Amino acid sequence: MQTKAPVITVGDVSWLRIPVKTRLILRDDDLAEEIQEGLSLAGLVLSPDDTLFVSEKAVGGSQGRYFVLGEDELHVRSLARILSGFVTKTPAGIGLGMPETMECALRECGVFRILLAAFLGGFTRLFGRRGDFYRIAGSCARSIDGPTKGTIPPFNNAVSLAPLDPEGVSKRLSERFGCAAAVVDINDLGGNILGCFPPDKDRALLLEILQDNPLGQGRAQTPAGIIRRVSSDAS
Question: Among residues 105, 138, 160, which one ends one of the domains?
Fold first, then answer.
């Protein structure tokens, strides 16, 4: 259930955020078809001035970019077990603070890059600077999510990876639905725009519009949403 206000004002412009409920999107599902079904069931019609945004977990889910712990094979190296012990846990989730998520980071980003990020990140933390590990490791590491209580199964017991080609996915969704589209990684502590089409879309504005995570987290099962400008005569 959406608990955030549906309308947000950025500058002096108001924007309506409409969540789109779908069935659970898993590997081999057709992302566009699932979104279309959700739109149809809700009686929603997209206009060329709208922006369709989709969570990175839904995109990654349709691509099979997740491992269900205890079901999918995920061999964890000793290096992943060692490095995960040095990761600071945050309210946003376990991040790379468990061997399985760190193993995925080593695979996705490369051993050298993760070791470099760990060394430099640990060094700069001695001087009170935080966040360098993820800045060096890159977006692929930031987008890896571990099991989260309250999340709809199987993702409550899964490691989720960053989606492949979010720019291309955004372009295909834009062409399919006839409006701008974006793949986003948003949580209650912030977020990133992973992909967007058309390319000149204002990503900073999108991030401001979505800053309060209007789709919510947990079991809401609203992996997509619509951003629609509120006309001045409707305010």
Answer: 160
Task: Measure Cα distances from 9 to 130, 154, 187, 209, 215 in Å.
Answer: 31, 35, 19, 8, 17
pTM of the model: 0.85
Give the count of beta carbons closer than 10 Å to the beta carbon of residue 111: 14
Place of tokens 């969540």: 19
What kind and span of H or E run contains 59?
helix 56-62
- pLDDT tens-place string over residues 144-166: 888 888 788 888 899 999 999 99
| Residue 141 · residue 108 · CB < 8 Å | yes
Instruction: For residue 209, tell me if it sits in a domain.
Output: yes
CA–CA separation, 182 and 227 (whole Å): 10
**Do residues 231 and 216 lie in contact, with contact meaning Cβ atoms separated by under 8 Å?**
no
Question: What is the model's pLDDT at position 135?
Answer: 87
Per residue in 52-87, pLDDT (tens digit) is: 999 999 999 999 999 999 888 899 999 999 999 887
> Among 5, 19, 6, 10, which residue's Cα sits nearest to residue 215?
19
CA distance 147 to 54: 20
Amino acid letter, residue 52: L
Q: E strand or H helix at 171, and its extent?
A: helix 166-177
Domain residues for the domain of 29 are 7-65+163-234
What's the rounded mean pLDDT across residues 166-191?
A: 91
